[in-house]
Amino acid sequence: MTTSRLKDLLARVQGGTLSIEEALESLKTLPFEDLGFAKIDHHRALRKGFPEVILGQGKQPAHIVEIAKRLWEKGQPVLITRLDEEAAVAVSRMLPGLRYHRDGRLASLGELPIPPAGQGTILVVSAGTADLPVAEEAVLTAEMMGNHVDRLYDVGVAGLHRLLGNSEKLRRASVLIVVAGMEGALPSVIGGLVDKPVIAVPTSIGYGASFGGLAALLAMLNSCAPGITVVNIDNGFGAAAAATLMNRLSLGSTP
User: Fold this and answer.
1) What's the pTM?
2) What is the mean pLDDT of residues 189-206?
3) Separation of alpha carbons 50 and 114, rounded Å
4) Each residue of 73-95: pLDDT tens digit?
């Protein structure tokens, strides 16, 4: 249930083309639907501006399919994150029309994204090519949440001239998502160059002492550049959700 669908429903009741009983039937699964193994939050789009997202990691394909079908039946777009290729094949057999985005390890069903409404641009920046799966998760999620998104990849601090050569693109962005592994220095550099929100995403890329992204996470949390927001290791989805809220608030729009 989205804001536009709820307004349409109420308008049809007001106009006499839909009975109260029919409207109640449409609303009976609000705010959630209990499937036993999952409780689907059909009310989330009204509160957050985008429907509940399915975390594919750790779920049985049959459970993913059932949740996706229930969301789809309610007219809601479906986004499945952390879906590996093997699970994607199994799910797609049961969900015709499913689109798998290999680079971002996620899948979508339905006409996406929500049409952007006067928002600025979210720029996703990656330090290295190895960070692309997390960066693409952020890009695709942000697009599906109704944002204009741009990419700037492989501009890590080992070759700082690559970043500085794109300074105009950095300044034009409304919100920046900066994805980096290894020592995680890139968000600090960018945070010192722009006056826009910077969301830092540590990745699990790096040699032994990177401790699976912990070194990058701690570096970002201890950044000397003020105003940087940090999400969890490899959490491109969380960064995109936060950037979406910032992008709306920065222009005074609402979900």
Assistant:
1) 0.80
2) 94
3) 9
4) 777 778 898 998 888 889 888 88
CA torsion through residues 238, 242, 244, 247, sign: negative
SS3 call for 68: helix
Give the pair of three-digit tokens for residue 96: 């015709």
What is the third-level CATH fold of 121-250?
Rossmann fold (3.40.50)
Instruction: Give the pLDDT confidence of 32-54 residue by residue, as tens digits.
Output: 665 777 777 766 766 777 777 88
Question: How is residue 115 annotated by DSSP?
Answer: P
Start-to-end CA span in the chain (Å): 13
Instruction: Output the CA angle 71-77-79, nearest 5 degrees.
Output: 90
Q: What is the C-alpha to C-alpha distance for residues 142 and 244, in angstroms, rounded to an integer? A: 7
Cα(149)–Cα(172) distance, rounded to whole angstroms? 12
Amino acid at 192: G
For residue 90, the tally of other CB atoms under 10 A from its CB is: 16
Q: Which residue has the tokens 């995403």?
A: 201
pLDDT at 238 over 50: yes
Scored b (16 or more CB within 10 A) or e, 170-204 reads beebbbbbbbbbbbbbbbbbbbeebebbbbbbbbb
Cβ count near 121 (within 10 Å): 17
C-alpha 6: how far from chain center:
24
DSSP assigned state of 30 = -
Residues of the chain within CATH 3.40.50.1970 domain(s) are 121-250
Q: Which residues pair with 121 in a beta bridge?
A: 148
